[in-house]
Design goal:
This protein has 12 helices and 12 strands. With 360 residues, it is of the alpha/beta class. It is globular, with a radius of gyration of 20 Å. The protein binds nicotinamide-adenine-dinucleotide and 2'deoxy-thymidine-5'-diphospho-alpha-D-glucose.
């Protein structure tokens, strides 16, 4: 049996990774470690919580003694590390929390693994999930017409140039992971993925936020002119990539993950509006009046675009879903799971959102 520690498994992407591993590998024991911050939600894992190969542990990755104890208690062979503070807007308001969790928390986990494995690297893996945002921002040299909106893409060799406190903290954690490989010989993997969308995403992020606001007839706050470009990947395809890389990736290496699927924010907002209106039975265009241009995000990166050719060529991974199909599934899921959404958006989070929005 392999004992795999997945951190941040109660969050958006982590819950999809836990679900995939628990269902696909009954011979593994999956330990989901999560601090259950505002973004962690055990309701994301209701369908697998009773599986015999699944264990949940509530813990903070910054608690080094606890990380050491858990490595030993569960005799961990592999770590898939997703726990993080993940929202750029929050990092602008509160950078310290991002440095603590993303940098110090990752270091605490690395050191606990290093101490437990004690130089015996055979069959061990420490896989760190990072983001395309560490590479900085690309130009929009082809703003009109169809994607791609620029001639440059992020490659695995692109120099790090983070702009937000969030991306700076992710860059810091990536450097620590590579340092543990280069200094101690730890078998590490790092992947940098583009924007994910799909079920169970916390509704402070663009797509679930806008689906929910349309449902309630609330304004859709588009930052700046809505011309920023993001590269969108269906979350289940990210989880599939993590599976392939965890098992077949070359240790010490980095892989970019993305679907060559660039969209300007305003265009994606229009697709979401169209899909929600159709599924709710509203006349086409009903919710377009909710679009509200607001003050731009500070330091807002203009364009992200991932080149994931290496992953396709070396490990044969490709996205399985076309964007049209993915967005239809996503909108349907949120409309069919209104209780999930209402449980999150009532109470504390509603207050936070109203405050955040009033500053725009
Ligand atoms: P999320 O915010 O939905 O989930 C993060 C999870 O980490 C939550 O369950 C939270 O409770 C947990 N967590 C936070 N601090 C913790 C701590 N100190 N100890 C233990 N658990 C803690 O995030 P997500 O969108 O699922 O992102 C997961 C990972 O993937 C992050 O590392 C993020 O940087 C990376 N990533 C995200 C995207 C994206 O589009 N969402 C794209 C590329 C990479
Ligand atoms: O690129 C990968 C990253 O994608 C991940 O590392 C992050 O964890 C994840 O949050 C995401 O970051 P973004 O900042 O790109 O995602 P967000 O959903 O916050 O915003 C997407 C775009 O939409 C961005 O250009 C800002 C814009 N936006 C966002 C919100 C929440 C709006 O115009 N209005 C909004 O209300």
């Amino acid at each position: 049996m392999k004992n795999i520690l997945i951190t941040g498994g109660a969050g958006f992407i982590g819950s999809h990774v836990v679900r995939l591993f628990v269902n696909k590998y009954p011979e593994y024991r999956i330990i989901n470690l999560d601090a259950l911050t505002y973004a962690g939600n055990l309701a994301n894992l209701k369908d697998i919580e009773d599986k015999p190969n699944y264990t949940f542990v509530k813990a903070d990755i910054c608690d080094f003694d606890k990380m050491c104890a858990l490595m030993q208690q569960y005799d961990i062979d592999g770590v898939i590390h997703l726990a993080a503070e993940s929202h750029v807007d929050r990092s602008i308001k509160d950078p310290f929390t991002f440095a603590r969790t993303n940098v110090l928390g990752t270091l605490s986990l690395l050191q606990a693994a290093r101490q437990y494995w004690n130089g015996n690297w055979e069959g061990k893996r420490f896989y760190h999930i990072s983001t395309d945002e560490v590479y900085g921002a690309l130009e929009l040299d082809k703003p009109e017409g169809e994607a791609p909106y620029g001639s440059e893409f992020f490659l695995e060799t692109t120099k790090y140039n983070p702009h937000s406190p969030y991306s700076a903290s992710k860059a810091g954690s990536d450097h620590f992971v590579r340092a543990y490989h280069d200094t101690y010989g730890m078998p590490t993997l790092v992947t940098n993925c583009s924007n994910n969308y799909g079920p169970y995403q916390f509704p402070e992020k663009l797509i679930p936020l806008f689906i929910n606001n349309i449902r309630h007839g609330k304004p859709l706050p588009v930052y700046g002119k809505g011309e920023n470009v993001r590269d969108w990947l269906y979350v289940v395809d990210h989880a599939r990539a993590i599976d392939v890389i965890f098992h077949q990736g070359k240790t010490g290496d980095t892989y970019n993950i993305g679907g060559f699927n660039e969209w300007k924010n305003i265009d994606i907002v229009k697709v979401v509006i169209k899909t929600v209106d159709r599924l709710l039975g509203n006349p086409e265009g009903t919710s377009e009046k909710l679009i509200t241009y607001v003050t731009d995000r500070a330091g807002h990166d203009l364009r992200y675009a991932i080149d994931s050719t290496k992953l396709k060529t070396e490990l044969g991974w490709e996205p399985s879903l076309q964007f049209e199909e993915g967005i239809e599934k996503t909108v349907r899921w949120y409309l069919d799971n209104q209780e999930w959404m209402d449980n999150i958006t009532s109470g504390e989070y509603e207050k936070y959102y109203e405050e955040m929005y009033s500053e725009k």
